[in-house]
Amino acid sequence: MEQDAKDNTATSRSQHSVHLLPHDRGAVEQFLAGALERIDAASGEVQLLVLAADTESAAMIAGVASELSASRGFRVVPATSVRRATRLIREWKPQIVVGSPEEIVALIGTSAIKLGALRTIVLAWVDEATEGGSSESLETVMAEVPKEAGRVLVASRLGTEARALAERYARRGLRTGEPAAAEAVAPLALQYVTVSPGHRSAVLRRLFDELDPASAAIWARTPESEAEATRAVAALGYRGEDASVRVVRDGPLGSAGLVVLYDVPADPAELRGALGEASTA
Length: 281
Hints:
Layout: H1 2-14, E1 17-20, H2 25-37, E2 48-52, H3 55-69, E3 76-79, H4 82-92, E4 96-99, H5 101-109, E5 120-124, H6 127-130, H7 136-144, E6 150-155, H8 160-169, E7 174-176, H9 200-211, E8 216-219, H10 223-235, E9 245-248, E10 258-261, H11 268-275
Parallel strand pairs: 1-6, 1-7, 2-4, 2-5, 3-4, 5-6, 8-9, 8-10
Helix pairs in contact: 2-3, 5-7, 9-10
């Protein structure tokens, strides 16, 4: 009996994990893969709950979850509004629900969703939502989560809020993606433009109108971003392998005078790999 108790404790701890990943679509599969393996398709109860920073992030995560679940028979409900999510949960009986803490608290309050059968809860970049406001909704949801459920925390950086969440909800969790010790490297000339995912292609067009580079390479992390950026530059007249502006996902950037990071690199090593010998981005 004592050995069984120790084994159960070890198993519970192994289900907790902390991932440092960029807040983008390409990172979602990395932290959902393990949670999806624990779902029983025959059950019509919620077994995976993903708490997102906001409704836009929830919709993005739910879209990836739906793609990954299509061949497994899992049903996914994006809780981007309480009214619609309530109806879909009752009709579909999903195994996976994705929403912001505020939306999920509302669903719990009306008994639209129950967490008794929950196997995994994922806190996906919620530190970005709690940095400047109250975390009461998150605390309310976590109080309903069964003790035996696995807990996964995802953050783009291990800042003060993310560390506090990891200590409180995923203590002793397996950590992946932690940055290695910084190496002495030459500084890079980087310029940033903050933009929502839905407006990247429009901003990219304005960027090229403003800078008018003689040559450029656009780096993308995912096939979806690659396709989107390719359509955007094609609309500007850059087509074919010999075009002075190219979109690159896997391969050398060449001698481009300007490098545009269409996605956020996962870590400094990926950033260096994306830029190669370029000095301007």
